[in-house]
């Protein structure tokens, strides 16, 4: 049985959302959450700008790199780079249902090829010392039985994977968009609970439909971990009580204002390095959700952060709508 503590609370890999700026913000809110990158394809790392895709701030750790691919040798090569770059885990995507991913023969369609996934996992484990984990659905298309889910997990576990992150919905590879695949197929938590009962030697982490820490408590009564995606992105302040509520530790920040105060120096440094402001501030839009001034905060950032030459003052000015006082960079 692997050490399950790192997986007790995870943030999901979210395409186009959970980039390094998003993860920096999330780390200000929780020191104990395990953060996942958005999916990076093996082709992007092998043929593209590797530094762009692998670079992250050391403050983000612990952070896992999620890979998309289906060639064992290529995945092994990329897993080795993940270790070299200082990641804490490498995760194989077997859950994304998009057409683009299917055309590349990776993502959820790999659930139909458990032997290939096992080969990929074995090659990745042999190439690095990092934990190699798999994120997948409870099934795809005509996979209707719990036994078929076991038939996928069995060979992959035998190959050495000890941590399975299970999105508790099927994926329909034809006829539903990725967005619809997150909403239309019904959630099936009992199957995920049954996996843990049947395979107690494995760490089973639940993903899908979790919107609060109270719901996390319910699932953690039967599973090793939970993973939140859109709920954490749309309302980042949810993460601020993770350390106390789920780990019995001290929360790293006491207020949203403290988050802004800590984020401003990061913004200044990133702007100096050539980052465009809106690449950072788009992740902050939900920080004051439900509080007075939140709408003006979001609007000011949305209308001004993308402008040519936009600087840290845009965030400072937006902050005044929710605080009434400016915060200066440290």
TrEMBL record:
<feature type="site" description="Interacts with tRNA; defines subfamily-specific binding signature">
    <location>
        <position position="295"/>
    </location>
</feature>
<feature type="site" description="Interacts with tRNA">
    <location>
        <position position="93"/>
    </location>
</feature>
<keyword id="KW-0694">RNA-binding</keyword>
<keyword id="KW-0285">Flavoprotein</keyword>
<dbReference type="GO" id="GO:0050660">
    <property type="term" value="F:flavin adenine dinucleotide binding"/>
</dbReference>
<feature type="binding site">
    <location>
        <position position="66"/>
    </location>
    <ligand>
        <name>FMN</name>
    </ligand>
</feature>
<dbReference type="InterPro" id="IPR018517">
    <property type="entry name" value="tRNA_hU_synthase_CS"/>
</dbReference>
<dbReference type="GO" id="GO:0102266">
    <property type="term" value="F:tRNA-dihydrouridine20a synthase activity"/>
</dbReference>
<feature type="active site" description="Proton donor">
    <location>
        <position position="96"/>
    </location>
</feature>
<feature type="domain" description="DUS-like FMN-binding">
    <location>
        <begin position="12"/>
        <end position="318"/>
    </location>
</feature>
<feature type="binding site">
    <location>
        <begin position="229"/>
        <end position="230"/>
    </location>
    <ligand>
        <name>FMN</name>
    </ligand>
</feature>
<keyword id="KW-0288">FMN</keyword>
<comment type="function">
    <text>Catalyzes the synthesis of 5,6-dihydrouridine (D), a modified base found in the D-loop of most tRNAs, via the reduction of the C5-C6 double bond in target uridines. Specifically modifies U20 and U20a in tRNAs.</text>
</comment>
<feature type="site" description="Interacts with tRNA; defines subfamily-specific binding signature">
    <location>
        <position position="179"/>
    </location>
</feature>
<comment type="similarity">
    <text>Belongs to the dus family.</text>
</comment>
<keyword id="KW-0521">NADP</keyword>
<feature type="binding site">
    <location>
        <begin position="207"/>
        <end position="209"/>
    </location>
    <ligand>
        <name>FMN</name>
    </ligand>
</feature>
<keyword id="KW-0560">Oxidoreductase</keyword>
<dbReference type="InterPro" id="IPR035587">
    <property type="entry name" value="DUS-like_FMN-bd"/>
</dbReference>
<dbReference type="GO" id="GO:0000049">
    <property type="term" value="F:tRNA binding"/>
</dbReference>
<feature type="site" description="Interacts with tRNA; defines subfamily-specific binding signature">
    <location>
        <position position="298"/>
    </location>
</feature>
<keyword id="KW-0547">Nucleotide-binding</keyword>
<comment type="similarity">
    <text>Belongs to the Dus family. DusA subfamily.</text>
</comment>
<dbReference type="GO" id="GO:0010181">
    <property type="term" value="F:FMN binding"/>
</dbReference>
<dbReference type="InterPro" id="IPR013785">
    <property type="entry name" value="Aldolase_TIM"/>
</dbReference>
<feature type="binding site">
    <location>
        <position position="167"/>
    </location>
    <ligand>
        <name>FMN</name>
    </ligand>
</feature>
<dbReference type="Pfam" id="PF01207">
    <property type="entry name" value="Dus"/>
</dbReference>
<keyword id="KW-0819">tRNA processing</keyword>
<feature type="site" description="Interacts with tRNA">
    <location>
        <position position="182"/>
    </location>
</feature>
<dbReference type="InterPro" id="IPR004653">
    <property type="entry name" value="DusA"/>
</dbReference>
<dbReference type="GO" id="GO:0102264">
    <property type="term" value="F:tRNA-dihydrouridine20 synthase activity"/>
</dbReference>
<dbReference type="InterPro" id="IPR001269">
    <property type="entry name" value="DUS_fam"/>
</dbReference>
<protein>
    <recommendedName>
        <fullName>tRNA-dihydrouridine(20/20a) synthase</fullName>
        <ecNumber>1.3.1.91</ecNumber>
    </recommendedName>
</protein>
<keyword id="KW-0820">tRNA-binding</keyword>
<feature type="binding site">
    <location>
        <position position="135"/>
    </location>
    <ligand>
        <name>FMN</name>
    </ligand>
</feature>
